[in-house]
Fold this sequence. Notes:
The chain is mainly α. It has helices spanning 14-20, 45-48, 55-64, 67-80, 104-111, 138-141, and strands at residues 38-41, 85-88, 147-148.
Amino acid sequence: MLNRCLVAGVALPSAFTTTLFAQLPNPGMTVVSGKTALVVTDPQNDFLSPEGVTWGMVGASVTENNTVANIETLFKTAKGSDLPVFVSPHYYYPTDHGWEFEGVLEKLMHTIGMFDRKDALSVEGFEGSGADWLERYKPYLQDGKTVVTSPHKVYGPETNDLIL
C-alpha cells in the first residue's frame, strides 16, 4: 500500500522536508522508499492558467497560494528523489455531456467546456487546450517515468475515488 503524497498533504524525503517545508507542521507521514509516491490531480490549463476556463473562479486562490510554483517544486523534488509520480487528469469526452445524473459542479464544468477532449484516443486539438498540462509541467509529466492514470470525473451515478 502506498502512502499518499498529495499537494494538500505533502510528505517528502526528510532532507527536502527540512529544507523546503521547515515552517510547516509535521504531516504525520513517514516516507518509505518503494511505498511513497507523489499523486497530483488536474495539473491542467483549465485550472492553473489565466487562459483556463475556470480562472475567473479559482485564479485569485491559485495566485495567492503560489499553487503553480508549489506544484512545480513538488515535481522537481519528487523527480530529484526518484519518488514515483502519479497524475490523475480530468477529461470530458462528448459522451460525458449526455449524462442524466450530474451535480451542480459537473453541470458547470460541462457548460463551460472544462477539460473537453474530442475523444479518449485522439490528441487532435489537445496541445495547448484547457485539458492539456501546464507547459512548465510537461518536462516532469512527459519524461517517460510519470504514471498518468485514467481520467477521473467529479460526480456521476457512482463514486470514482482513487484509493491507493
